[in-house]
Design a protein that fits this description.
The protein has 21 helices and 23 strands. The protein has 669 residues and is α+β, with helices and mostly antiparallel strands. The chain binds adenosine-5'-diphosphate and magnesium ion.
């Protein structure tokens, strides 16, 4: 009890004792402590003075003049806020903690309201005192130098992240995705695709890598690193108050001039020059895990491409069917004519070998169809059960018969084949394979000339494809189906072997790059040197060109020329060499007329790249320069970034419903 007490004078308190109860919901409210004390005092008195009314004789509490002691209490302040009272659940009083959090939220809301008001005020000031709100609450905005600075920084961060992987001495990266799957790679496009990039400008850099990969299959890291350096140099020009559109214009002119200069530098090759093609493939896979086996792999890649190339030089690399099979050694990787499918016969009673195969490709299940609605069948007699099963079996039998009726002796099915159907197919001497991948079905269609049919009923003999031999063979303890002597002689398969899935995956990416660059050279028939030679040559010539441009654009062209040096610089850095010494040495060689001199990262000095066999398709360089320039220009021209609030944790924007950061269960009012 509080020490300081006071006399309370109660005059004719006209309340019945029974009515004085303490409301439950106030009990836990600290602010009501005072009400509680007062009430208890009254109750205490009531219990003492509860007598009958002197006049009426009714029971009640009628002290004429009573003196009691009670704590000193200021006038009870009503501090029960709206939240704690209205959310009262009868019978489950709130804990003090709950009430504290309720209040915290109340103040938090107040704070947010103030923030919002300030934003409105800012905007109205911008609009000359008029209150016009054009953006949704939660929208964030950065503009002018701030926006440019952020975008350039983000794009450069992406470029820096892949820079260490450039070149034959580049390092690999280990990427772990949300599911815990690991990818170990040196390939720029793969690294950027797997990195969960959020910043919009950084995403544009990822796009460059994707485009480069799709168009030419190689030069992804180079393109991104070049774009990063172009933006870096642009940042310096912006600091000197050169307008972004001037920089953009200079970069565009420099890019166009570069393509011209590159075309003049290019060396034509014959598509049947296998030695040259092998060097192109080898340059593409240098620095990747597969490099140690480059003689074997490049040989296979060049054979594959020359087999599938048309006489006019067009190449569809989809004709090269790449299959991965874990087991064996990398040296066991082989190229075979025809198709290989990593599957086995559906039933052991089916033939292992079929000569003069007539092939049906079916994209439908030879199985019971499960009904989509749940139906209930009442069966009262055993013969009804029999009839029911027989009916199902008959259905499958009919489907199998229809497939057999097409005249096929080999069936590749994209879906499942029921045991009963397998039995009938085996009986008819058909080699059937089930659950074939869609991509394999498409390759089979290209190789054998078959059409993929959606139901056995719709199949006609014209839909069947043909192959000289279909057989099941063992490979590394597993069975594979080999389809050889196909109707389309171009079909070839590359079976990649290796000790583990990660090795095989990395090998597959390297082989994809090699296949792509070889096919690009077979089609485009032009090559340039590698090892930074074309970049240094371009840089020197662009410096000369800049002098003719005049005006501020000249500065931008010079910045572009300087940015190209980032490729040899990164190659030198990654090889542990002094980048300044190396660039000076290569530049000196070029000025002396040795235009194909690039950096030999193994001996650390400039050498003739044509002699060293480090050559790349012209198209890889032109594509890299074009897409890097486009991305840099696009990022430079942005002066305002308006980001609307996103549904989940967007950077800068308000999280969903504006309640971000609140612990769960806080949104209950
Ligand atoms: P990208 O994803 O850009 O293809 P790479 O890691 O494959 O990145 O590196 C390509 C760069 O390495 C090219 O500039 C190429 O000329 C250079 N390069 C490749 N092989 C050699 C080599 N043996 N010596 C010097 N430079 C090489
Ligand atoms: Mg490469």
């Amino acid at each position: 009890m509080v020490s300081d007490m006071l006399n309370v004078y109660l005059v004719r308190l006209r309340a019945s004792c029974a009515r004085w109860t303490v409301p439950d919901r106030y009990i836990y409210e600290p602010a009501n402590q005072l009400n509680l004390i007062t009430t208890s005092v009254i109750q205490a008195y009531a219990s003492v003075n509860c007598t009958s009314d002197p006049g009426s004789g009714k029971p009640g509490f009628f002290p004429e003049k009573t003196t009691v002691t009670a704590p000193v209490v200021p006038k009870p302040e009503r501090r029960i806020d709206r939240l704690s009272v209205t959310k009262e659940i009868p019978g489950s009083p709130r804990t003090p903690r709950q009430m504290i959090t309720s209040r915290a939220r109340f103040f938090y809301k107040g704070h947010r309201f103030r923030e919002y008001s300030r934003m409105r005020q800012d905007m109205s000031q911008q609009l000359g005192g008029q209150q016009v709100i054009i953006l949704r609450q939660g929208t964030t905005r950065s503009r002018g130098e701030e926006a440019q600075g952020n975008n350039i920084a983000a794009a450069r961060a992406v470029a820096t992240s892949v820079r260490s992987t450039l070149g034959p001495k580049g390092m690999d990266k280990m990427l772990i995705d949300g599911m815990g799957d690991i990818t170990i790679t040196n390939d720029g496009a793969t690294i950027l695709q797997q990195m969960d990039i959020e910043h919009p400008a950084a995403k544009m850099m990822v796009e460059i890598a994707k485009t480069q990969d799709k168009e030419v299959g190689d030069g992804t890291t180079s393109a991104v690193v070049l774009a990063g350096e172009l933006l870096n140099n642009a940042g310096r020009l912006l600091d000197q108050k050169i307008h972004p559109t001037v920089i953009a214009e200079g970069y565009r002119q420099a890019s166009v001039k570069s393509l011209e200069l590159l075309a003049a530098m290019a060396v034509p090759v014959k598509p049947d020059d296998h030695a040259m093609l092998r060097q192109v493939a080898a340059t593409a896979i240098s620095g990747k895990g597969a490099e140690a086996y480059k003689d074997l792999l490049c040989g296979l890649v060049v054979s594959a491409i020359t087999k599938v190339a048309d006489p006019d030089g067009t190449v569809d690399i989809r004709h090269v069917n790449v299959q991965k099979k874990v087991g064996g050694k990398i040296e066991d990787t082989e190229l075979i004519d025809g198709m290989v499918i990593d599957k086995e016969r559906a039933h052991s009673g089916m033939p292992k070998t079929v000569k003069n195969a007539r092939i049906l490709l079916l994209n439908a299940a030879l199985e019971y169809k499960k009904t989509e609605v749940s139906a209930k069948i009442n069966i009262s007699r055993p013969d009804q059960v029999r009839a029911f099963i027989d009916e199902d079996e008959q259905m499958i039998h009919n489907m199998a018969d229809t497939a057999i009726g097409t005249g096929a002796n080999v069936l590749f099915c994209q879906k499942g084949i029921d045991d009963v159907a397998q039995h009938y197919l085996a009986k008819a001497g058909i080699l059937a394979v089930r659950r074939v991948k869609k991509s394999d079905m498409e390759s089979l269609a290209r190789a054998t000339g078959a059409a993929i049919v959606n139901s056995p009923d719709s199949a006609t003999p014209a839909d069947l494809g043909s192959a000289g031999l279909v057989e099941e063979k063992k490979l590394s303890g597993g069975e594979m189906i080999y389809v050889s002597h196909c109707r389309n002689p171009k079909a070839v398969s590359l079976i990649i072997r290796g000790g583990s899935e990660h090795i095989i995956d990395d090998l597959e990416r390297a082989i994809h790059d090699a296949l792509m660059v070889t096919s690009v050279v077979v089609q485009d028939r032009n090559i340039v040197s590698g090892g930074g030679a074309p970049e240094i040559e371009l840089s020197l010539q662009l410096h000369r060109y800049a002098a003719t441009a005049g005006g501020r654009v000249q500065l931008a062209i010079e910045a572009f020329a300087k940015a190209l040096e980032v490729i040899p610089r990164a190659l030198a850095e990654n090889a542990g060499l002094d980048s300044i010494d190396m660039i000076v040495a290569i530049r000196a060689a070029h000025e002396a007329g040795k235009k194909t001199y690039g950096l030999d990262v193994f001996i650390g000095k400039p050498v003739d790249m044509q002699k060293a066999g480090v050559i790349e398709p012209l198209k890889v360089k032109t594509q890299a320069i074009t897409s890097a320039t486009e991305a840099a220009v696009m990022i430079l021209r942005i002066d305002d970034v308006i980001a609307s609030s996103r549904s989940a944790g967007a950077p800068g924007g308000m999280p969903p419903g504006g309640m971000g950061g609140m612990p769960p269960g806080m949104g209950d009012y």
